[in-house]
Amino acid sequence: MSFGAPGILLGLLLLGLPLWLHRLRTDSARSEPFSSVRLLEAATQRVFVDRRIRYWLLLALRLALLALAVLLFARPQLNAVADAGEEETFHWVLLDLSASMQRPALGDAVSETVEDVLASIPDGQPVGLLSAQGSLEVEVPLGQARGAVVSAAGRLEPGAGRLDFGDVVGALGDFLDRSAANAVVHLISDFQASGLPAQFSLLVPRAPYELQLHPVVGATDNAWISAAAVADETLTAQLVGADNFGEVTVQVGDEPAQVVAADPASGQVRAELDLLPQQNLISLSVDDSGTAVDNSFYLLVDRSPKEQVPLLSAGPASGAEEANPYLSAALTAVSNRAELAPVAAAEFDARRLSRHRWLVIEDLGSISSGLARALESWVQGGGRVLAGAASASQGLRRLPLTEHELKSAELALADEQVPAEPEFVSGVAVGHPLLDRRLSFRDIQVSRLLPLETLETDLSLLWLPDGQPLVLEHRLGDGRVLLVNGGFDRSFNDWPTRASFVPFVGIVADYLAGHRRLERQRVAGERLTLPEREGVSYELVAPSAAGDLFGQRLDQAGVRLDQTGFYALHGSDGTVRHIAVNVDPRESDLAPLDETTFTRWREALAQRSLRSMVPVNVTDADRSDNRLAIWLLCALAALVLAESLLGNYTMRKPA
Predict the structure, then answer these.
(1) Strand, helix or coil at 104?
(2) pTM value?
(3) What Cα–Cα distance (Å) separates residue 141 from each residue in 87, 129, 130, 522, 652?
(4) Spatial distance between the Cα atoms of 477 and 498, rounded to a whole number of angstroms
(5) How far apart are CA 84 and CA 470, in angstroms?
(6) How confident is the model at residue 430 (pLDDT cuts 50, 70, 90)?
(7) Is the dihedral of CA 617, 621, 622, 627 positive or negative?
(8) What does the radius of gyration of the chain's CA atoms come to, in whole angstroms?
(9) In angstroms, how far is CA 445 from the centroid of its own chain?
C-alpha cells in the first residue's frame, strides 16, 4: 500500500489527545448529610486525585476514529505505480490514408515501416491498427495477432481525403479516453507540410498518451489541376506543380473537347466547349507520374432551363426588367434555378397555380377578390408567395389574401404624414433561415410604411422602432406568404439599393421553392447532407457505382464524399442532380515538413511524454482505489455511530 499524500500521516500524532483527555477525568468527592461539624475532631488528611484511565472501550473507539480519518485524507492506494509492469502498455499503429499517400512506391515503404514498428514492440503487449482519412477508423482491434495487423495494413489503400495532423491528435485523445495513460500511438505518414494545423500547440496531445512519429519518404514531384472555370463557351484551367506536364485532355460528358491552348510555363489551359442546355459534366485530365488521384479535375456547369416563376404585376404585362427591375436583376444575379415570368394580375389564369411551387405578387392591392380566393386555397394546400404591399394597397381597409387590416389608412397615407426623417430597421428575428447573420439590414431607410395590424399567425422578421413590421411571414394552412411592407421599388424605402437586397432575394427564392442550398463543387472527405425539398427522399450514386440506381440512401446525417468524380443525387420526385468532387489541393502539394519543424514536433512530444506518461493501467488502479476509499468511509461511519452511542451510555451511567 502507498499513499497519495503521505505528509497527512503526521496527523497520527493527534492520537495522544484522547489519551490526555481521558487521564484528566477526575471523580469529585461525595457529600453526606451530618448534624453538626462541631462534634467532629479536627484532623489533617492529604487528598489524592484519581487519574486512572477509565472507559477503555470508548477510548479505543475514539483512537480508531481519529486514525481512520487521517488515513482517508492521506489517500491510500493499493496499486502502487512502482508495482506496475511494462506488460500493461498497449500500442496502436496509425496509418495515414490521405490522398498524398497514393504516390508511387510509397506502399512498400509503408509495409516495411509497419513491420519495423511491430518488431520494436515487446512481446506480450497488445497491438491494434487504426487508419486516418478525415476520421479515425479501427481496422484491427487490440489483442489480435501481429500477423493480422501486418496483413490488414497491406490491404489498406489510400483514399482521396485530406489529413490534418492537429485534427488527428485531438481525435486520438477522444478515442483513447481514460485508457490513454498507458497507450502508445505510432503514426506512419508522409508528413506533408500542408497538413500542419494553424497552431503548433495542436500537434501536442492534451490527453496523456504517447505519440511516436514514423515518416515514410516518397517522390515530391507532382502536377495537378488546381482550378477551372467556364465563361461563355470557353474553359480556362490552371495547372500547378510541374514545369513540363504531359498531354491535357478535356471532355464534356463522353465527348472530347479541343484544347486550343496549353502553356507549360504558366500552366494555363484553354479549351472551346459546346455546352448543352442541361447539366454539363466536364472532366479535365493531365498525364503525370505523381499521385494519380489528382490527375483529373471535375467541373459542373448547369445550363438547365430555369423555373418560370409568375410575377403578378400591378400594371399591364411587360418584361421582367420593366415590371420590377430591382427584383428581376437581384434574382438573375443570385439564382440559376428561377427567373421571373411577368404577367398582369388582372390577366393571370388561376387554373395554372398547380403548376408552380411559388410566385411573386408585386402589390397585393392589385389582385381581385376572385384571384385572392383562388390564391388562398392554393397557399393553404402548400403554395408559397412573396408579396409586396405598396402604392396599389393605399386606401384599402384590408389586404387581399393575408387579411391584414390597415389602421387609420387615410391619415397614414396622406402626404403630410410622410416623416421628415427616414426611420431605420431596429429589430431582426435572428435565427430565422431567411436572415443570414452575414447580412446587415439596419441601414435600410424607410420613408413610408403601411400601418398593418399583425395577426397571431404572423412572424415579424424585420421591424421599425415602433414595432411596425417591414417584413413578416404569414402562415396560411400548409403554405406561407412572405410580405414586404413597402414593396420592391424605391417608393417606400431604399432597400433595393442596399447591399443586403440581392443576397436576400436569392435566399428567399430557395426558401420559398423549398430548396436547401447545395454546393455543386465539393472537396473529397466533406459530408453531404440533405440539400433539397422537405418530404423528398434521396439516393446517392457514387462515381464508382455509375449505373447503379439504388445507391446509398441519404438521411439527415448525410454521407461522406470519399471518392472523386461526379456523384448523382436521385430524388423521389424524379429530379437528378450531380455534384463534382475533387481532391483538396493541399493534398496535391507533396512537399514534406522541413527538418526544423519536424524536429521541434518530436522534441515537444518527448517533453510531453516525460511529464505525463505513467506506465500503469490507470483504469484498474483507479477502480481499486475507489473501492478501498468506499470501504474506509463505511468503517468511519460505523465508528462514528458506535462512539456516539457508547459515549451517551457512559454519561448516563451512575458513578
Answers:
(1) coil
(2) 0.61
(3) 17, 7, 8, 33, 68
(4) 33
(5) 72
(6) confident
(7) positive
(8) 41
(9) 37
